[in-house]
Write a structure and sequence with these properties.
The protein is an alpha/beta fold. It contains eleven helices and ten strands. Helix 4 packs parallel to helix 11. The structure holds D-malate (MLT).
Length: 312
Amino acid sequence: AAVSFGSAAQGAFPERQVSLVVPFAAGGPTDVVARMIAIPMGKHLGQTVVVENAVGAGGTIAATKVARAQPNGYTIFLHHMGMSTAPALYKKLQFDPLKDFEYIGQVVDVPMTLLARKDFPANTFQELQAHLKREGNKVSLANAGLGAVSHLCGLLFMSAMGVELTTVPFSGTGPAMNALLGSQVDLLCDQTTQTVPLIKDQRVKVYGVTVPKRLDVLPNVPTLDEQGLKGFEVKVWHGMYAPKGTPQPVIEKLNAALRVAMQDPEVKKRLTDLSSDIVPMDKITPAGLRTHLEAEIAKWGPVIRKAGVYAD
Ligand code: MLT
């Protein structure tokens, strides 16, 4: 009887709303993707999927919270490649990305753009280069904390340019972008899921994209690579997780909902307009995410340890 009760309970999942935890502030890139897919996922599941922003420590506060949540499917998590950089960045990480989670699937790959406040003096990448060489740490570079991709992009950029800027952390690039729009900070490297409309409306200056090929939606914006930062590449992958021990039938339902959401015509159009690539269906699987995460931890660990950047 206990066994049939158990499977009946799982068969009924979800009986109430599902919380989708986002590790950065509302209004930013991760939040944009989460809110976009929460609607069709909820429709498929027959329950509302509510986005919950749990900010702090470059996404690691939220990951810890999800790792410790009840493994019942009512708490799920959308995070980007910070899941793979955190183990090298944080000496005292409270969670293990490879032990404390179930994997629902990969989601989307998002390029980044290097931006300045509209009234920043440098108008071209060449002028930016000269300005940074001259002004150095008088120039501020916003990010979303250690573990954020804005932070990672900034590190790679400073290293490629051979400059040290003054970094200013926020709880997400949503608030960092507000500071850029308000001219309180100078530079920001951020994902196209937030930046495309602002670039098109010329509310920010843009110097380049972080992928080797120009973006269809921003054909006039050169790549950083073509302007001299040879091999500069950051493309931000995302995954959806649940706490370890979430029953497999529940993971299967969540995966089915994610797959439906990623094929939703409205979601597809919005993501394409934001220059983001929905990953192939064979990666929107638990195994697809797990395999990718393992490879990314192996890739970034040595790079970060070599850079010597970490939190105690
Ligand atoms: C966000 O959603 O605020 C960004 O993904 C933060 C980041 O730069 O990693």
